[in-house]
Design a protein that fits this description.
transmembrane helix, 6 helices, membrane, DUF2157 domain-containing protein, single chain, mainly alpha, transmembrane
Amino acid sequence: MLPALAMQMTGEVNWTAGDFVFATILLGSVGTVVELAARFARPGAPHIGYIIAGFTAFFTFWLNAAVGIIGEEDSVNIFFFLMVAGAILSAMIVRFRPGAMRWIAMLLAIGQYAVGIAALRMMPGHSVEWGFLTVFVLLWLTAAWCFNRAVINRAS
């Protein structure tokens, strides 16, 4: 509702119907992840891991669509979308098992820096905000740690 209200007050906010649909899908998706984690994940580490992964995926899509994580929206940012979309598909294939989810989250963490390195090559003269990428890396690694704790606890 905030963008709709802001559009009434200033000309600087100019959302299209597609923007509102995109926001609805993203917010609905993160809400679904949190709800499913609350219902089906074992309490503790896996529960927290799914919630962190869901919010990190949400923020990746949201920030990337809004302004682009690295440079313009039409630059190497497509790789962030593709990584998260591939991770979601992979997670569905492995039925969201914590043992596989830890590796998916680890690969996403590595992928954040890989896209940063690719940006240096593909966009010469453009700076990469490594601190910002590191926040995403730490979030993915935290989710991976939570999934790993679930695997360790299940084995013992």
